[in-house]
Amino acid sequence: MRTRPLKVALLGCGVVGSEVTRIMTTHADDLTQRIGAPVELVGIAVRRPDRVREGVPQELITTDATALVKRGDIDVVIEVIGGIEPARTLITTAFEHGASVVSANKALLAQDGAALHAAAEQHGVDLYYEAAVAGAIPLVRPLRESLAGDRVNRVLGIVNGTTNFILDKMDSSGAGYSEALDEATALGYAEADPTADVEGFDAAAKAAILAGIAFHTRVRLDDVHREGMTEVTAADFASAKQMGCTIKLLAICERAADGRSVSARVHPAMIPLTHPLASVREAYNAVFIEADAAGQLMFYGPGAGGAPTASAVLGDLVAVCRNKVAEATGPGESAYTRLPVSTMGEVVTRYHISLDVADKPGVLAQVATVFAEHGVSIDTVRQQGKDGEASLVVVTHRAPDAALSATVEALRRLDTVRDVASIMRVEGE
Description:
The structure is a single chain. The chain is an alpha/beta fold. Helix content is 36%, strand content 26%.
């Protein structure tokens, strides 16, 4: 066994960083045996050095992150500060000084993953980021290693615990969005500003990372179609239940049927109660993978929190340190397919459309004509009428999203359609 310790620098010491420090300290002997060499935490860069951090050695604290990663004797840098800058500069500086990097930074990887991989390869070091997607759930490494010999066709997942908690409460209790959000905030699942979660930005970054790995092509955050879930209502859930469905905010990464392109999108969708993702409750995450040889696989567990995320970070740390001991590097970026990323309009999906219409003869025929004119086939129609007004719920067959969207716009222009009350995609069938 190698006796010289592998030196580790930690950038950030919030909830996740503190937990990483605790695990490295309490499980030092186990980590040594698993890696084949001792691991020593030699510095922790923070912005607020006076903040009390229980269990974190004060002598390791520094505010000079740049000097820490430039030391030259650092073997691995763990980055858990998040955001684009200064994280990007610190990571590339670490590469330049011979350090491998373990990151939990989904936003940076979704935006600049290709450049970071190229920099790591140039300097002969590793870039690992299991913690960037779905917390403790082993997902990145199975996709880029365990399924490397297979062809992945679809990744369908719940990758944000906050939104799943809110939607689950709306489903189980009949609460409205605001009420469910208030409960999520009170329990600590939602931030004071929940925009990144409820508007789908967090899930979109994760979708970009997953699509890139699954399909061996480069997918940036800007390539991901994103819709939030703030407009989902109790009425939507009631309609979903009538269809035997529930509603989830899904990250969906797909290979086109002809294999010539891929797509990545995040939006609320109805999924059948028979689908495994429908039973994912509260703040849990789950990702459903469909591959040629392996078939259907599901990964499930806590997707956030200090301890779960730290678990993923430490898993990467062990892998990277083993590579250092072996004087090797692990798998880097695999983007050989160079597949184009389809726009949302090209994606084939289904719509659930709820219309408020005049309750008089001929309305249904008018609506059906609009669908036919845009080449969209209707699967089911449900109509209820009272006192001169009616609600009409239409579920379509699969069609390009652009055709479905154009159909909705044409429906809005009908004199007999008073309101398009709700539009929701249907997935997972």
